[in-house]
């Protein structure tokens, strides 16, 4: 059996007080009242019934919520997801530049690598939309998008662009350009932000990894302990009260993978990073495990996550990179995307 190395076990993950309180007060409960109008749901059966009851509405969707008040149809969302998927496939065909250095602060380093790998052909006016500073407020993001749409001399469809970039370049008129740039960010953000966060979490939880541990197990185990999508929101709706007497007609529901992924009734040694548990578990069919949402409508971008996360882990492991032994703690802030805020990654002992 493989256990996480002593160096990883001696690191402390400091969850934000709210997340810490959720785990401390509610672990193992199937439903809990979080607010006067919000029920948290963490039991696998109730999660299943809630998420199977209906599809996410447009305001509940994590990726393609309305863009500045304009709805994004499912058809368009699905077409844009395919487009970024094509760009990812295209980027993965070419050999990687030989001297990639993935040491440095993560998730930033992974984010910049993915941005350049996938969107590197696009002009700065587009790739600036992947700036991590724009995470700070949606208003700032929208201001940058609006400024980029207003400036003359934008990319033309005939330029050497990604397919996603070409969609943005085809838009004409200020309003359409602004919408198209917003879509560019919406589609590319999960690739750059979420996947780099996932890999940063994995490094923090378990590196240096045993040579015999498959990347796939590392990724599934990291998604269990620090699920980037740690909550899934469903607004109050008539389908829910009949599912459980504790759910009232006006209650919003927060499905909490953060809790179900550590429920002691479902997992052996729930707080330990044990990638080997995935030797015998099916991530698509393990009760209470839903890092990519429910089986009735799993994450549409999931097929991009595994190859890109595995590529990053391969490069990190080949280069002998690991978490700086001097870093003993990492903070996990209360944000929509759950992850360590900064992990210092450097060459491990015995490597130059
Ligand atoms: C580690 C990476 C990722 C995680 C953990 C993740 C997680 C999730 C989860 C939990 C859902 C279901 C939400 C719900 O039912 O309300 C979802 C849906 C979705 N995801 Fe992902 N995702 C990831 C990466 C991506 C990527 C790379 C894309 C590419 C564009 C993507 C696009 C979508 C889309 C389009 C949906 C459907 C609904 C919507 O948001 O419009 N995801 N994802």
Automatic annotation (TrEMBL):
Molecular-function annotations in GO: heme binding; iron ion binding; monooxygenase activity; oxidoreductase activity, acting on paired donors, with incorporation or reduction of molecular oxygen
InterPro entries to which the protein is assigned, alphabetical: Cyt_P450, Cyt_P450_sf, Cytochrome_P450_monoxygenase
Residues making up the signal peptide according to the UniProt record: none
Superkingdom of origin: Bacteria
Recorded family membership: Belongs to the cytochrome P450 family.
Protein name: Cytochrome P450
Species of origin: Streptomyces inusitatus
Origin organism lineage: Bacteria, Bacillati, Actinomycetota, Actinomycetes, Kitasatosporales
């Amino acid at each position: 059996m493989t256990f996480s190395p002593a160096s990883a076990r001696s690191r402390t993950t400091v969850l934000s007080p709210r997340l810490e309180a959720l785990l401390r007060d509610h672990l193992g409960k199937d439903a809990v009242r979080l607010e006067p109008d919000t029920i948290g749901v963490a039991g696998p059966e109730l999660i299943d019934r809630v998420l199977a009851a209906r599809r996410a509405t447009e305001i509940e969707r994590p990726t393609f919520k309305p863009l500045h008040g304009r709805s994004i149809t499912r058809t368009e969302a699905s077409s844009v997801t395919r487009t970024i998927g094509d760009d990812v496939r295209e980027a993965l065909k070419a050999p990687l530049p030989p001297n990639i250095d993935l040491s440095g602060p993560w998730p930033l380093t992974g984010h910049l690598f993915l941005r350049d790998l996938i969107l590197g052909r696009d002009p700065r006016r587009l790739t600036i939309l992947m700036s991590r500073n724009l995470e700070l407020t949606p208003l700032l993001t929208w201001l940058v998008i609006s400024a980029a749409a207003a400036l003359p001399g934008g990319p033309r469809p005939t330029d050497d662009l990604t397919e996603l970039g070409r969609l943005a370049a085809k838009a004409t008129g200020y309003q359409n350009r602004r919408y198209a740039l917003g879509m560019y960010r919406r589609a590319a953000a999960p690739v750059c932000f979420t996947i780099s966060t996932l890999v940063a979490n994995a490094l923090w939880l378990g590196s240096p990894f045993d040579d015999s541990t498959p990347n796939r197990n590392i990724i599934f185990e990291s998604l269990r302990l620090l699920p980037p999508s740690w909550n899934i929101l469903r607004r109050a709706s008539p389908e829910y009260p009949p599912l459980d007497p504790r759910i009232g007609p006006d209650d919003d529901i927060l499905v909490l993978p953060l809790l179900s992924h550590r429920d002691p009734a479902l997992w052996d040694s729930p707080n330990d990073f044990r990638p080997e548990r995935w030797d015998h578990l099916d991530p698509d069919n393990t009760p209470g495990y839903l890092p990519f949402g429910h089986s009735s409508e799993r994450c549409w971008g999931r097929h991009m996550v595994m190859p890109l996360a595995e590529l990053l882990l391969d490069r990190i492991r080949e280069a002998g990179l690991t978490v700086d032994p001097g870093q003993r703690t990492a903070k996990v802030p209360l944000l929509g995307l759950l992850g360590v805020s900064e992990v210092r990654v450097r060459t491990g002992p015995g490597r130059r």
